[in-house]
Design brief:
By secondary structure, the protein is an alpha+beta fold. It has 27 helices and 16 strands.
Length: 795
């Protein structure tokens, strides 16, 4: 008996013990294994990333304040609604999930898997093909991985709510209009009270879909076209300040053309037989009921109506005025949209004039377009495109969305299937508007429903082929097997992506900070982040980072000066909140400030260095005492400059080329058995305590008292918990570096595991940044990052 037979027998025996048919259990095991591939890829990518803008940390801080009993929106500044905080309260307070970076990523994985599972159920229910359900799961899970830079963001909850709304339409159908309307109203309101713009888009989409599907007289038709007209104008109203720009006009025109195409290709005057009064009545009743429950939830914790109004309306408007990025919509997308509009108009005119027979050319053209739509979405999702996939889906997938509305040239399905397709397409068309004002990961969430829409087009083509191959055994076998071949190809691509992600994760450096033990990123950022955390714990009772970076609060255990946190820039903070921050910082003599201007400059289109109360206070009251990789560490003026730890400084020693002094924060852990100086940018080891004939300069190591520790280092190791400083002297010239390189000191334990990575410090003395690099001795290796000019002029 071979191993395969043994495993098969075990699965069959287990299935009989559970009362399940062996074939059904085998299907379940196979589906779980297929689903595990994209989730494994997502896991390595999530835990192998940390975004510089740190929305994750800011959101976690607002959730932490809320869990500690502070009033949301009145004492905690946030632009996201009570729907998001209710979800987080349930997870962390109700279920006891810890509020850490590692746990947040685990929650994100769970939400992604649920969203992909609901999407797969929608397609499986509408097509009856298990293979297409599996394909949808793999594609949606893979596509959501594109948002790996922002774990814990409300947009992942928004994606789940969006697909749940479509699932409501699939489950309820026309025969249960009360359930249909109630589910749609609840989902649209929950979206509005999570991110207000998504709720507006969803509400208009649902009302438009219900009216388009409804049976009724002239007033129903009038309301239907009025709602479609509102959807047509919404992109122009939203982008009104930017219509004079090419990108603003193209974006509004593209989405309006998609709406117009759906309106022409949708149900005719008769609708789909949906009873409008119970459906629309349930929608209008469930929406305020859901809003009332969520508002009562935050009101019970002390939130005021004015605070809620500021969060839902005023704060998003301030954000749209601060962060605006051009959306690169080109003329080819407009041309494809016009072509789709013409085809939809011709087909609508012919069908409504009573000429139901399709032209043979039209039939083949629609089959070709559906294949093109499905194949394009599949390739853009399954093949990594360095972040360009979502924008290409908007360019070339969105104009073809109308093809998922009608199963033609396949036979017409039931009215319930047509209703579900209508809801899916209407919601998908307007959700794309969330790419304004920032077309980042919003592009993924806004185009998520195009993935199941494309798979539905695949089903239409397969059904059409099955009809044409009814009398051909080979053709019928192809139709049955082709979806599984596509699934195998996509899963193989996902497996390759997962393997590459695993290799990157294994090669990266563990962040090693509190609550983020599983995260691995590049050495350069690990060195800078550990340096910041160590010195904040040692020299600050609180701090403020001008670019947010709220994860530092979680890594250090320090509390912010007040409950008002910065997200990405001071300019987004209202003058009242800036005054509160200034007052709070003034009460704390050991408060510090972290500034990171190299990150800020490319972030915002408008200038962000204009004067403000908080920025002026920081410039007047705080001075820079050291810099690492663009991070400036500021202390109060008049305070003695502290000795910054967990970093290295260049210097010169008598009788040797140069020396390096490293200052350590005493910490328990393994002893150090090897020390080396490395150039991260060029992959060079400049000097090593174990040169071993490699041509590297040999390091001699001394403690604070000048005792030579080199003989002890390799034999017994150096106990880092008892040392405050080490001096590394070069016995010979170091390996040549290059100007502008990023050098670090690495310390290893007996097994070769890196236990510390120390960046080189730029010290600020007498109003200028003093780089401690000895470029002559080092072969012109320079300090890691030159400081911004404003910091260099500071006095």
């Amino acid at each position: 008996m071979n191993a395969t037979t043994t495993v098969g027998t075990m699965v069959a025996d287990r299935g009989r013990a559970l009362g399940l048919p062996a074939r059904r259990l085998a299907w379940a095991v196979g589906l779980v294994l297929l689903a595990a591939v994209p989730l494994l890829s997502a896991t390595f990518q999530l835990y192998g990333n940390f975004a510089a803008w740190d929305d994750e940390g800011w959101l976690m801080m607002t959730v932490g304040h809320f869990l500690r009993g502070y009033r949301l929106y009145d004492e905690i500044a946030s632009a996201y609604g009570p729907g998001y905080y209710g979800f987080e309260y349930l997870l962390h307070h109700g279920l006891g999930v810890p509020l850490t970076h590692d746990a947040t990523r685990l929650i994100t994985l769970t939400v992604w898997a649920t969203t992909a599972g609901v999407s797969a159920w929608i397609v499986r229910r509408l097509t009856g093909r298990r293979s297409l359900g599996v394909l949808t799961f793999v594609l949606v899970a893979t596509y959501l991985t594109s948002t790996k830079q922002e774990p814990g963001h409300p947009q992942e909850l928004a994606a789940l709510l969006t697909v749940l709304g479509v699932a409501t339409a699939v489950a309820a159908g026309r025969e249960r209009p009360l359930w249909l309307g109630a589910g749609g109203g609840a989902v649209a309101t929950a979206l509005a009270l999570t991110k207000i713009n998504l709720g507006v888009f969803a509400t208009l989409s649902w009302i438009w879909a219900l009216l388009a599907a409804a049976e009724g007289g002239w007033w129903v038709r009038l309301a239907r076209w009025a709602t479609a007209g509102a959807a047509l104008l919404l992109p122009f109203l939203l982008l009104r300040p930017y219509l004079a720009t090419a990108w603003g006009w193209n974006t509004a025109l593209l989405i309006s053309l998609v709406v117009a195409t759906l309106a022409l290709a949708g149900p005719g005057r008769e609708g789909l037989g949906l009873r409008l009064k119970p459906a629309l009545g349930a929608f209008l009743a469930s929406a305020p009921a859901t809003a009332g429950l969520l508002c009562l939830f935050v009101f019970a914790f002390g939130t005021t109506p004015l605070g809620l109004l500021d969060a839902l309306v005023l704060s998003p408007r301030r954000m749209a005025a601060t962060f605006v990025f051009p959306i690169p919509i080109n003329n080819r997308a407009i041309g494809l949209s016009l072509l789709s509009l013409g085809l939809a108009a011709e087909r609508a005119h012919r069908l409504r004039s009573g000429r139901l027979a399709a032209w043979r050319l039209e039939e083949y053209l629609l089959v070709f377009l559906k294949v093109l739509f499905g194949l394009g979405i599949l390739l853009l999702v399954a093949i990594p495109t360095a972040g360009r996939g979502p924008l290409r889906i908007i360019h070339y997938g969105l104009p073809l969305l109308w093809l998922a509305l009608d199963p033609f040239p396949a036979p017409a399905r039931s009215g319930d299937s047509a209703l579900a397709r209508l809801v899916l397409c209407c919601v998908a068309a307007l959700q794309v508007l969330q790419i304004f004002p920032i077309p980042g990961s919003q592009c993924v969430i806004g185009t998520l429903l195009l993935v199941p829409a494309a798979v539905l087009c695949w089903d239409d083509v397969l059904t059409w082929l099955a009809r044409r191959c009814e009398d051909r055994a080979a053709g019928a076998a192809f139709v049955r097997g082709a979806p599984w071949l596509v699934v195998a190809a996509v899963v193989t691509l996902c497996a390759a992506t997962a393997f590459r992600a695993y290799l990157r994760y294994r090669a990266a450096t563990p962040l090693g900070l509190r609550g983020a033990e599983w995260i691995r990123i590049d050495e350069r950022r690990v060195a800078a982040y550990r340096w910041l955390a160590a010195n904040l714990e040692r020299h600050a009772d609180t701090f403020l980072c001008t670019t947010g970076f709220n994860s530092l609060y979680l890594w250090t255990g320090l509390r912010p000066a007040c409950r008002i946190g910065l997200s990405n820039t001071i300019d987004y903070v209202s003058p009242e909140h800036q005054e509160t921050l200034v007052t709070s910082l003034s009460r704390l003599p050991d408060a510090c400030v972290i500034e990171h201007e190299p990150y800020l400059h490319p972030l915002v289109l408008s200038s962000i260095r204009h004067s403000s109360l908080l920025r002026d206070y920081i410039d007047q009251e705080f001075k820079v005492c050291g810099m690492v990789d663009g991070f400036a560490f500021r202390i109060r003026r008049g305070r003695p400059v502290p000795r910054l730890v967990d970093c290295a400084r260049w210097g010169r020693a008598a009788g040797s080329a140069c020396q390096v002094t490293i200052d350590l924060a005493p910490s328990p852990g393994p002893k150090a058995h090897r020390v080396c100086i490395s150039d991260l940018d060029h992959g060079l080891v400049l000097a090593d305590s174990r040169p071993a004939g490699s041509g590297r300069a040999a390091l001699m190591i001394q403690d604070e008292a000048g005792r030579d520790l080199s003989p002890v280092l390799e034999r017994e190791g150096i106990d880092l918990s008892r040392l405050r400083s080490l001096t590394l002297s070069f016995a010979g010239p170091p390996a040549s570096g290059r100007r502008g390189s990023c050098a670090v000191v690495r310390l290893y334990d007996r097994t070769g595991q890196m236990i510390k990575i120390l960046p080189f410090l730029n010290e600020v003395e007498a109003g200028s940044v003093q780089s401690q690099t000895d470029s002559t001795a080092l072969g012109e290796i320079a300090s890691p990052v030159q400081p911004p000019s404003r910091l260099g002029r500071e006095k």
